[in-house]
Amino acid sequence: MDLQIEGKRALVLASSKGLGHGIARALAAEGANVLLCGRSADALAANAGAINAEGRGTADWVEADLGDEGFVDRMLDAADQKLGGIDILVNNTGGPPPGGAANMSVDELQKQFPMMVARVIDLTTRALPGMRERKWGRILTVASSGVVQPIPNLALSNTLRSALVGWSKSLANEVAADGVTSNLLLPGRIHTARTDQLDEANAKRTGQSREEVREAALATIPAGRYGKVEEFAAVAAFLVSGPASYVTGSVIRCDGGSVKSV
């Protein structure tokens, strides 16, 4: 299938590693020109170089931290300079520290909110006018399966990412007539360094080994394994594609069947 994104300009947040990096590679493989961002200049430069060596789409990068107040301005300026605009925006953020809901602190909530919610919304709002004017745009927000089925010991993530569900759906209704889609993509257990980190945290919390934690997690996944970054990225690439123009306001799971609800 031709995804019809050759030459499209894609900004992918938090793409120095993990899911963001995988999505950037998938889009570039389809001919999109991608802008990577993250906190590690070395990783970003290496990733952009690898994408450019593969051939079809191009990659550039900018070092930027979602925790900085000037993040949105920095990303918009970089997108203008390096891409000439934004056709595809992939909102992706790191995860907050693990912990339960009963001891969630307001201080931690306020610390994480700008990075995981406010700046995502601000960046999207400011990127939208160009998309609407061109009558083509794609907003894809990577959240978590915890917005559908709360994940134990990830109360901060469950809480903050859930705010993006209502926002994305509301936005989709407002911009659909202008050829802009807005969807959420929810990863289940896709194997990344973050997955290993969470398995380690759960092992410490429960007194089990990391392997025991992993085996328990696998038992809850009908597919019987953790997902691959490439599998997740392929779903993302379709959702920002031309053929997906009638998919909007949706919450799509890529979880191997682990969420129990229909």
The proportion of residues forming helix, as a percent range, comes to 40-55%
* Total beta strand runs: 7
Which class of secondary structure composition applies to the elements? alpha/beta
N-end to C-end Cα span: 28 Å
What does the largest sheet look like? 7 strands, parallel
Query: CATH architecture of the largest domain, please?
Result: 3-Layer(aba) Sandwich
Major sheet: order of its strands? 3-2-1-4-5-6-7
Strand content: 5-15%
Q: Average pLDDT value?
A: 95
Query: C-alpha Rg, in Å?
Result: 18 Å
Shape: globular
Spell out the blueprint of helices and strands:
Layout: E1 9-12, H1 18-29, E2 33-38, H2 41-54, E3 59-63, H3 71-82, E4 88-91, H4 106-134, E5 137-142, H5 155-175, E6 180-187, H6 193-206, H7 210-218, H8 229-239, E7 251-254
Parallel strand pairs: 1-2, 1-4, 2-3, 4-5, 5-6, 6-7
Helix pairs in contact: 1-8, 3-4, 4-5, 6-7
